[in-house]
Write a structure and sequence with these properties.
alpha/beta, Rossmann fold, six-stranded mixed sheet, three-stranded antiparallel sheet, 4 helices, 27% helix, globular, binds inosinic acid, binds magnesium ion, transferase, PRTase_dom, metal-binding, magnesium ion binding, nucleotide binding
């Protein structure tokens, strides 16, 4: 059955905001180069759109992490599923993430990446759920604060679907609960595929 999806942030609004963030980054890094680290899979649509809007030289690298925990809560213990291809040494790094929820993933990851000697490291997130925060994370570039609702689109998935939607949407609560139950049943020893 098709899920009922309501638009939370329309495509034009998301695109305009990404353009704005790209302009801000271009200003802040004038005369420098930026190295974008996209957190897979959710960050990929945002990272591509953002990269197109940055006018200083951009290089890109990708990392995939998964959190141990139950299906819907990240535990904060992060496993690197795919590490970076390139060195971060001496680079002006910006981590590009889809959403900051509990904050646990980035709270863990940023200190780990700092040990790799980047010249600087900042965090850019498309979405933020301040009501869900459990640990402190500094977001240097942010698209939107959103309420505590399960969102999809622009890289964010619901059981691996809807990443390709060009807007931010909300799955009707009934359908979202089914997804959480399904994810719990499907999860084995290593859980938390939803926190990619
Ligand atoms: P945190 O460690 O709790 O901040 O986890 C952040 C990760 O949880 C994000 O990278 C997403 O993969 C996932 N996540 C959190 N909220 C949502 C949501 O509303 N929709 C889809 N994925 C989400
Ligand atoms: Mg993610």
């Amino acid at each position: 059955m098709a899920d009922k999806i309501n638009v939370l942030i329309p495509e034009e609004t998301v695109d305009a905001k990404i353009k704005e963030i790209g302009e801000q980054i271009s200003k802040d890094y004038a005369g420098k180069e930026v190295h974008l680290i996209c957190i897979l899979k959710g960050g990929v649509f945002f990272a591509c759109e953002l990269a197109k809007r940055i006018t200083v030289p951009v290089s890109l690298d990708f990392m995939q992490v998964s959190s141990y925990g139950d299906a819907t809560e990240s535990s904060g213990i992060v496993r690197i599923k795919k590490d970076l291809d390139d060195t971060m040494e001496n680079k002006e790094v910006i981590i590009v993430e889809d959403i900051i929820d509990s904050g646990r993933t980035l709270h863990y990851l940023i200190p780990v990446l700092k040990q790799r000697n980047p010249k600087s490291i900042r965090l850019c997130a498309l979405l933020n759920k301040p009501d869900r925060r459990e640990v402190e994370v500094q977001i240097d570039y942010l698209g939107f604060d959103i309420p505590d609702e399960f969102v999809i689109g622009y890289g964010l998935d619901y059981a691996q679907k809807y990443r390709n939607l060009p807007f931010i949407g909300v799955v009707e609560p009934e359908a979202a609960e089914d997804a959480e139950e399904g994810a719990e049943q499907a999860s084995g020893e290593e859980k938390g595929d939803n926190v990619e």
